[in-house]
Amino acid sequence: MKQNIAAQTPLLSPRDVDFLVYEWLGAEELTKHDRFSEHSRETFDAALDLAADIAVKKLSNHYREADAHEPTVGPDGKVVTLPATAEGIKAIFDSGLLTGEIPTEEGGIGLPSVVAKAAFAWLNAANLPTAVYTGLTLGNANVIRSFGTDEQKRLFVEPMLEGRFTGTMCLSEPEAGSALADITAKAERREDGSYGITGTKMWITGGDHEMTENIVHLVLAKVPGSPDGVKGISLFIVPKFLVNDGADGAVEVGARNDVTLVGLNHKMGNKGTTNCLLAFGDGSHPQEGGGATGYLVGTENRGLIQMFQMMNEARIAVGYTASANAYTAYLQSLGYARGRVQGRPVTALDGPQVPIIEHPDVRRMLLAQKSYAEGGLALTLYAARLIDEAATAADDAARTAAERLLDFLTPIVKSWPAEFGVKANDYAIQIHGGYGYTRDYNVEQLYRDNRLNAIHEGAKAIHGLDLLGRKVPQHGGASFGALLGRIEATAARAAEKAELAGFAAKLRAASARALEVTMAVGGAGDPELSLANATAYLDGLGHVVVAWLWLDQALATYGEDGAALQDAFYRGKRTAARYFFTYELPKAHTEFDLLAELDRTTVDLDTTIL
What is the pLDDT of residues 63-98, one digit of tens each? Predict the structure, then answer.
């Protein structure tokens, strides 16, 4: 069925999704473990087919309309959204896909992460501005599942997973974006055990709407008397409407909590999603005891640690969202290039015009798009496979190793697809020429929508600092060493293939250079200087990681007899790998050369000259 769907609306390549999930990452092998023993290739296919069907029929159908008619605030102060958006959200909830990774004993489907995230990639490729409401809801529910009480799970998680409530994450404030240590939201203890929450939160995706019965906000705030900085942050459940038990025991929505929509942010892209400035406890809907009524999650002063679970889930989601968006743009520009007739070959200037895909520079841009989009999706699904690897590990050591490698790779998983996915979007516009810069085609909207991914869930530079300043030295450098070990294992296998041996040598050289530069930068003795170009380090190491995964994919295009499979799909994979090693991997050396210089330009800059 997926092949038919793809022909109708190009979002992802079903053939590639199957290759990544089954042939490369071996999802079927997971069914041999008790955790996934109730599943099979058939149940995995059913989830992927269902996601693709919803993507086409319930999400892509209003992608452009929601962009043209973004949410507004009506005269009654309520948010007005496109009816089709609510229908799309309902379709996702009704499908059960939101519970994909939740164990069956907790009412979920119990899918492996690699399958569940591939399914969500379909939804995000079709219409992220609609799908994000449900993705945030899942992340919110998972935090409460992990750290909340049984009562909190019953009152808030169950209605969210049923689709009655949606969820948000409320971290940033107008004067404290990524600098969470500086948040000013307060939580005053009340005698009944609840808290009165006061303060404002900014950039809250899905922060207000009328599409579900309730909205469950997870809010970071500080209890008076708590330690300074991030150590004094606590986490609270603050619903838009208070909840209570009905006569039949079902959770009912009650009185309005003191959570007020101050205004909607007007964005460059993702216009179909509300993004809000919210005031908590401003007195618009007074609560007994003052402030908005909030309920502590876990214990005080553990809020940021708890919220990191949702943040890290969201960071991986940013990776596959950016990749899916870039993938859709690639497929649309590929179709356009095959059908758009313009220009003649340089060897036949007097002949008939040809489709622009016949021009080498257009082919270069298409290969770049393919390498970025397919490479980014491979990176994010590899991260999902590490989650499954940890869940099915034979012992604690193996589980810890998988978890630590995932933690190490998370800054790259979030940032690399966001950065280079937008480059793929840029090429899509270029291939469409003047039409690409108009609203006649989707590629300009896809570009605008994807541009956000380098900003939210931590701006790119923050992830560079995290990778180089914290993840590399963490655990005595063991996680970095584990990554280099996996890279070497792939290179060793590839070295035995004549067609891939040259790539293996290039990968080994880039990996060795990465280690050399990492040690040099780390040993500079000046943290400010060492981290001044952390973003370049993120790009450089990211390119090495994606090159590794391209080579690993290329190995999966060989049959059991050791011969390279010659189907066009497999030849396309190897060609994209060749492109990446030839055109892209050298850029990592450029970044590493810059880092090795320990240049002080930005450190010593006199800002008065700018």
Answer: 999 999 999 999 999 999 999 999 999 999 999 999
**pLDDT tens readout for residues 147-203:** 999 999 999 999 999 999 999 999 999 988 777 888 999 999 999 999 999 999 999
List, in order, residues 6 or more apart from 2 with CB less than 8 Å away.
14, 17, 18, 48, 49, 52
Residues 6+ apart with CB under 8 A from 28: 22, 40, 41, 44
Phi, psi for 252 (deg, rounded to 5): -115, 150
Is 424 exposed, middle or buried, given 0-12, 13-18 or 19+ CB atoms closer than 10 A? buried
CA distance 25 to 15: 14
- Predicted confidence at residue 9, as pLDDT, reads 65
Tokens of 193: 């055990």
- Contact between 207 and 140 (Cβ < 8 Å): no
Enter the tokens of residue 16.
Answer: 């590639």
| Exposure b/e, 26-40, CB count within 10 A at least 16 = b | ebbebbeeeebeebe
3-class DSSP state for residue 76? Answer: coil
286: amino acid identity, one letter: P
Q: How confident is the model at residue 5 (pLDDT cuts 50, 70, 90)?
A: very low
Rounded CA-CA distance 439/454 in Å is 23
List the end-to-end C-alpha distance of the chain, in Å, as a whole number: 57
CA torsion, points 19, 21, 26, 31, in degrees to nearest 10? -140
* Cα separation, 259 vs 239, whole angstroms: 8
Residue 349: predicted pLDDT: 83
Please report which confidence band the pLDDT of residue 366 belongs to, taking 50, 70 and 90 as the band edges.
very high
Cross-strand pairs, 205 = 275
Q: Flag whether pLDDT at 111 surpasses 60.
A: yes
Count, residues in the chain: 610
C-beta separation of 445 from 67 below 8 A = yes
pTM assigned to the model: 0.95
Structure confidence by residue, pLDDT tens digits, 540-565: 999 999 999 999 999 999 999 999 99
Q: Smallest Cα–Cα separation from 52: which of 91, 88, 113, 1?
A: 1
What pLDDT score does 246 carry?
80
Looking at 53-57, 204-208, 241-245, 454-458, which range is the least confident one? 454-458
Of the residues 313, 457, 584, 591, only one is catalytic, namely 457
CA–CA separation, 54 vs 98, rounded Å? 13
Candidates 36, 45, 60; CA nearest to 325 is: 60
Q: CA-to-CA distance for 222 and 183, rounded, in angstroms? A: 8
Q: Looking at the predicted structure, is the pLDDT value of residue 4 above 50?
A: no
Which among 98, 87, 110, 91 has a CA at the least distance from the CA of 161? 98
Q: Does 101 participate in catalysis according to the annotation?
A: no
